[in-house]
Amino acid sequence: MLKSLRSQLTTLWTILSHTFTRAETVQYPEQKPYLAPRYRGRIVLTRDPDGDERCVACNLCAVACPVDCIALQQDVREDGRWYPEFFRINFSRCILCGMCEEACPTNAIQLTPDFEMCEYDRNNMVYEKEHLLIDGPGKYPDYNFYRVSGLAISGKDKGEAQRELPPIDVKSLLP
Amino acid sequence: MSPLATALFGLAVLAGAVGLAAILTWFERRLLGVWQDRYGPNRLGPLGILQVVADMLKLLTKHDWVPPFADRVVFVFAPTAIVVAMLLGFAVVPFGEHLYLLDLNIGLLFFLGMTSLAVYSVLLGGLASNNKYALLGGLRSAAQMVSYEVFMGLSLMGVVMLTGSFSLRDIVLAQQDLWFCIPQVLGLYVFLVAGIAESHRLPFDLPEAEHELTAGFHTEYGGMKFAMFMLGEYLGLILICCMITTVFFGGWLGPWLPGPVWFALKTSLLICFFVLLRAAIPRPRYDQLMSLGWKYMLPLSLFNLVLTGAIALWLRGA
């Protein structure tokens, strides 16, 4: 009884001493919290250093997405580059898990430290490609998929990519 | 006082108590914020005081709903009972030497009776809701009342013995030399604990216990009926603090300042202490509450009673 009384008085004193400690609260709209560069927020589609869109519409992000919020349609440009005819992310479903970013082979889809995207109308949460595309290269400023991949597009044949050897004629390779 | 002045003063007490209870809803949250290293409601108006108005508007515009499975008459009656009982309790509180509504010669008993009536409100609310959480809350409230009502009365009897009167005015006047919080320190402790239990405040808010029983006895209540319960609870808190001030801390007595100011000061300090208790002490388990009541508090108050009686007799040279 006395022991518990003492412990309760100690508790009261501890709490009372908090009268003079500062509040930990971050007054949000006026005072922004620090968000790390790798914070997983709003999703963007980036462009390569030359200004072309990076996305090759491989559908890996849509497959990786656990909530199926990504929808896209692949098409081929005249120069042989693949691109998404439409690219749609339903942010009212998106859980900002970052799986799409991990799945993306071309570093096109990236998550940004921005979370202030509230809307009054649910339909406004569906972002189309023109809403998602940004002008810069995002987190990987020098990466250009078509310059390192072996795919032939107009202006770059097989074997002309960076750190790539000319193709070998397998039929001439005799033992 | 003339009848008109009495009526006006009564209205002032009524409005003051209800207004203070409303402001307390904001004040308590701010104070809890201070002790929990956060701000509490600070957006609306200076220091967030208009939060009271916002809450009021919200509660007033809520759907006034009675669940179809509830006992309608009792369900609607229950929240009014607690407010009426608690407000009636304010009738006997002496705010100053000549500032009181009623000087009943059984003022203390009247207060005890009114706070006990308030418990019925919780009980009936829990019963009429026809909901298992509400029923459990009501059940706990009944058990709490049975165990705490006993020594709540007993803890005050020491003071009555020393004063020789049940009138609250006489009790204050008897403290001119020494406040009763010193000779009756055991009584004060027991009454404090019982007072928290009586007003269903944390740490003894077992009938409500939002972590275990959703919202306890007022699970099914909403809108103004819920607000009445809350109002009653805060009125109870103020009433208990007024009583502790009157009985143990010399009521309006104090140097320099006028009596009512002293009364208000002491009462508000006590209210802050009650909020501190809420911020600091966790809720005991149900059986712990009962065993504390019957095994420690009751013997303690009886011991205090016997000791006070012996000393009072010795002082009179019997």
Structure overview:
The complex is a heterodimer of chains A (175) and B (318). Chain A has five helices and five strands; from the N terminus they run H-E-H-E-E-H-E-E-H-H. Chain A is α+β, with helices and mostly antiparallel strands and 175 residues long. Chain A has helices at 2-17, 60-64, 99-103, 129-132, 145-148; strands spanning 43-45, 70-76, 82-90, 109-111, 126-127. The model of chain A has no long low-confidence stretch (mean pLDDT 87). A three-stranded antiparallel beta sheet of chain A has the order 2-3-5. Chain A is elongated. With 318 residues, chain B is mostly helical. Chain B has one domain (63-315). Chain B is built from ten helices and no strands. Chain B has helices at residues 3-35, 51-60, 72-89, 107-128, 132-163, 168-173, 185-198, 223-248, 259-280, 286-315. The longest helix of chain B has 33 residues, at 3-35. The chains are: A alpha+beta (175), B mainly alpha (318). Chain A binds chain B through residues 1, 8, 11-12, 14-16, 18-19, 21-25, 27, and chain B through 33-39, 276-277, 279-281, 296.
Q: Total number of β-strand segments of chain A? A: 5
Q: Ranges of chain A with pLDDT <50 over ≥5 residues?
A: none
Query: Can you tell me the overall shape of chain A?
Result: elongated
Structural class by helix and strand composition of chain B: mainly alpha
Name the chain pair with the biggest interface and residue counts per chain: A-B, 15 and 13 residues
Any low-confidence stretches of chain B, pLDDT <50, length ≥5? none
Multimerization state: heterodimer
Q: Care to count the β-strands of chain B? A: 0
Mean pLDDT of chain A: 87
The largest pleated sheet of chain B is described as:
none
In what range is the share of β-strand residues of chain B?
Answer: under 5%
Q: Provide the helix percentage of chain B.
A: 55-70%
Characterize the largest beta sheet of chain A: strand count, sense, and whether it forms a barrel.
3 strands, antiparallel
Count of alpha and pi helical runs of chain A:
5
Q: Tell me the number of structural domains of chain B.
A: 1
List the helices and strands of chain A in order: HEHEEHEEHH
Evaluate the radius of gyration of chain B. 20 Å
Largest sheet: spatial strand order of chain A:
2-3-5
